[in-house]
Amino acid sequence: MIKQYLLAGLMFALLGLGNAYAEEAIPVSESIDEPLYKPFIERYILDELKLLRQQLQAMRAEMAEKVAEARLDASDRAMRYTTDTTNNIFFIITGAASILVLLGWRSLREVQENVEATVERKVSKLTGEYEQQLHDVERKLKVRSEQILAAQEKISETNQIHSLWMRAGLESSLHEQINIYDQILEINPEEVEALTYKADVLMDLGETRWALSLSNQAIEHDADYPLAYWQRACAEAELGQQEAAVRDITLAIEKSPALKDELEKESAFRNLQDHPLFTALVNDEVG
């Protein structure tokens, strides 16, 4: 475009110079019907336009050639890149295959067998770990279930025992009371209170030796239960074992000082009224 503008400017300059030269060369007095320089100027302009078209065609040809060379160069570089990449891949494959051969993996079958063996070994290890974890979970669940069942059974037994105790408190028949205490002991053979209260009822029925045996069982189950010593003292006093009775009375009062208030009220101790130790206990309580 710049060359075209320069050529157009040059043509206008030449036209101006031609006009000036014609005015100087032709006298004013001479009359010319048509200018003599017009065919030359037209020829000059046509030549210049022809030259301009030739230059433009040459420029287009040069541009097309350069574009073709650029495309050819890009294609060539792409081909070289593809070739180099393919060669590198083959080199890598060849190197990997060589390494596998050097490590002892002679064929793809051996590779597959080794992979399968490795996977199977790892799967077996994981399976064993999961099985162990499942066994642990099952064991914990079993223990927890047993604890829950034991707790439910304990609650049920407690409710049954509580119901039987309420029945025993309302029952007036001594034999029926013994039957209720036996039901409590059937649920819990180590129920110390049931043994002691059964011994007390047996005392009322005249079964003193049986009451003494039950009191001994209660003390064996719970050596800190004061009423068991008190009940045994009652049985011993009825059987004439005064020394043993006074000793058990002393133990019962040591474990439960409130029992001092019952010394004079207990009818089973009537045989101990003349015993000096029993008298000392009564006098100490009264004082």
Summarize the structure in short.
The protein has 287 residues and is mainly alpha-helical. It has helices at residues 2-25, 38-103, 108-170, 174-187, 192-204, 208-221, 226-238, 242-255, 276-286.
Describe the structure.
The chain has 287 residues and is mainly α. It has two domains: 95 residues; 116 residues, Tetratricopeptide repeat domain (Serine Threonine Protein Phosphatase 5, Tetratricopeptide repeat, Alpha Horseshoe). It is built from nine helices and no strands. Helix 1 runs antiparallel to helix 2 and helix 4 packs antiparallel against helix 5. The longest helix is centred in the first third of the chain and has 66 residues. It is rod-shaped. About 5% of the residues have low confidence.
Distance between the termini: 141 Å
The shape is rod-shaped
- pLDDT averaged residue by residue: 77
Largest sheet: none
Instruction: Enumerate how many helices there are, as a single number.
Output: 9
Layout of strands and helices, then pairs:
Blueprint: H1 2-25, H2 38-103, H3 108-170, H4 174-187, H5 192-204, H6 208-221, H7 226-238, H8 242-255, H9 276-286
Helix pairs in contact: 1-2, 3-4, 4-5, 5-6, 5-7, 6-7, 7-8
Coiled coil: 46-73
Transmembrane segments: 89-105
Signal peptide: 1-22
Q: What are the main properties of this structure?
A:
81% helix, 9 helices, Serine Threonine Protein Phosphatase 5, Tetratricopeptide repeat, mainly alpha, rod-shaped, 287 residues
